[in-house]
Amino acid sequence: MGSHILDLSNVDIGLLQLLPGKPDDEIACDVRTVPLKSDPTYETLSYVWGDQSNTRQITCDGSPRIITESLYLALSRLRLHDRPRTVWIDQLCIDQTNDVEKSLQVSVMRDIYRKASRGLIWLGELPSEEQTGFPETHVALVFQCLTEMITDLTNAGSSAGVQPRDLGEVILALMGSQWAKWQGVKWWQRIWTIQEAKLPRESDLMWGGYTLSFDILKRVAVGLVNDTRVGQRFEQCFSLGPLTNEFCIPIMNLQINDPAPILGPLYRWRSRDATNSLDKVYALMGLLPEGAFKSVPFCDYTISENELYTRVTLDLIRHHEGLLPICGRRGEPRVTPGLPSWVVDWTFADDPSQRTTDYFGHCWRYNYFNCSGGKYVEPEITSDGAGLVLQGTQVDKIAVLGSVNYLLDYRQLSDGEYDEHTLHTISLWSSVFYEWLGDRSIEEPYIGNKAMTCLEAVCRVLIGDLVYRGSEPSHHASEDEAAWVRNYVRGDWVPTIAASARDMARSQAFFITESGYFGIGPPDAEIGDEVWVLLCGKVPHVMRRNGQDLEFEYIGDAYVQGIMEGEIIAKSTTTIETITLRNHIVNFPAQNSLVQNPPSHSD
Predict the structure, then answer these.
(1) Residue 447 near residue 567 (C-beta atoms within 8 A)
(2) Whole-prediction pTM
(3) Which residue, of 31, 85, 182, 570, has the fewest CB within 10 Å?
(4) How far apart, in whole angstroms, are the C-alpha atoms of residue 542 and residue 554?
(5) What is the Cα–Cα distance from 388 to 508, expressed in whole angstroms?
(6) What is the predicted pLDDT for the residue at 587?
(7) Domain spans of the chain?
């Protein structure tokens, strides 16, 4: 699985000179070619191509040129009346008939946007008043009020003040179906627009004929969540709940610097739309560290989704020295046909109506454990490109399974509703535990630690042995905190224990192994599935034999009480075996050319 090398050191780019004109004048422009390394002055346009069958005509370099309606409207708004404007726009600055040039330009997109003097974010024309029920001037007032409010709060003692009722009344008018028009703008849903917003040193957001500094927008969003001065101004007028969810979170997500700078963005943005499934990776490469994927040095559209996703997953596993990149899988559909079971399917979109990977919840817990005892053997790939070869030891087989705590759209639940659902699930799991226990005492020693009772062990399992502070785990549970879990099951809970139980139980299944180990794991686990400790990570994994000797389908990661700190590996009787994860055989075509047929990146 090798790639040809592109020379990205001496790249020329096209720059559009948008010629001045009056609103009714025909749009005219010229394109000139300059070396990117000469640091030319230009702006970039971030937009959505839209329906490519809906087109308009302009004049470019003296000849007619067909462009999409979306771009035509943007150019109409961007054009100045008294001087040219220099902008980099993919649709006009890249020869769309030259696949090699398109490949080269996509591969240097990071530098094109980073070197720009300003980014221009075009959301499109405003919906009509008939569609929304509010006049365009409301948008102008919102933009003005947001700017003045941030200026007022930044400049202590400034006499310029914003009356909260003014801003509140306007935004309240936008919070109904009108606000949905803002959230429904395609720009917020496309994956390419993320780097186009993040990379320029500064950006302006344009909606119809109105412009707002994107920095102001970001500061308002952060302030609503973190700055009591901003929040208080808004709370005088309306509840912050809907505004935080619908307005703040999408904007704040654009500012997050993930602690896992490669893996985090891939999971965070996988729900964004892409016409070409390869762009679920390629559209984010400009945000990742240089050389993030050793086996994918540039955007190569000649390879299949299977090969790209396999390469990327293997690179991530090796980078993290473990299986963290594939943790959190919780029964989500496999969209890409024939993908090996251990490979992350980046094509999948985060649909609240479907089960989805809970990567971040599992990522936060991952580094608290060390079930491999610090031992690491780098995974290998089989010759057919579909199998992942690992070393590890079988712990046991699943003998008893509890019901699954499915919460398809838990983000819409209040804490009370969330707790009620979690308590119901845990009560069912408790029944499974007591049925398994039979006539034995709850004080009976636990197989994973003879100094621990079965009751304490199951209580620790229900919170993954971690106590949360806020949305992330803080520390391993003490004896007292483990005992509090029993009170939680009875409906008398401490908030930190409730948060821990909610996060641990979500979309997971309680199980007991043949030997009596207690654990929580993937919802699609079955009786007879095997629990393994692999010398490639910090948590155990559930796998299913596929009929071949030591070949398995990967099911998901798990928590098993009594094996999370290397206890199994430390035993003198432990036997290490070589196994292969696959489930599907995929024969990748040989690479024989440069990148072919990449889609338009704003598509």
Answers:
(1) no
(2) 0.84
(3) 570
(4) 7
(5) 25
(6) 40
(7) 129-184+215-253, 405-507
